[in-house]
Amino acid sequence: MTYVVTEACIKCKYTDCVDVCPVDCFREGPNFLVIDPDECIDCTLCVAECPVEAIFAEDDLPKDQRHFTALNAELSKAWKPIVEKIDALPDAEEWRLVKDKLNLLER
To answer: Which residues contact 62 (CB under 8 A, 6 or more apart)?
Structure first.
């Protein structure tokens, strides 16, 4: 099992989760983070740190977010690792409660 970053992260990109990851499994895109499933050790530390509750265990993904498992795997191969906390996107607070943001994902 791995952990998966879901839609709530899009256009927010809080990186509190990155700060606690012991194996540096996060990858950074323009407006979204993903978890590399080959690097994740299922430690659960990132889940509690996410201020928008965007991270789930693969087995606990809401039905409408299950496609993010494949998306995390795909994008983790293309994006560079992020190993330190950085500022969230400037308008993250405006986007934190918005739903249906997949069409806003920048690759």
So the answer is: 6, 56
pLDDT tens digits, 23-62: 999 999 999 999 999 999 999 999 999 999 999 999 999 9
Domain locations in the chain as residue ranges? 3-80
Is 3-80 assigned to CATH 3.30.559.10? no
pLDDT digits (tens, 9 = 90+) for 72-85: 999 999 999 999 99
Q: Which pTM does this prediction carry? A: 0.97
Dump the DSSP string for the chain: --EEE-GGGTTT---HHHHH-SS--EEE-SS-EEE-TTT-----HHHHH-TT--EEEGGG--GGGTTHHHHHHHHHHHSEE--S--PPPTTHHHHTT----GGG---
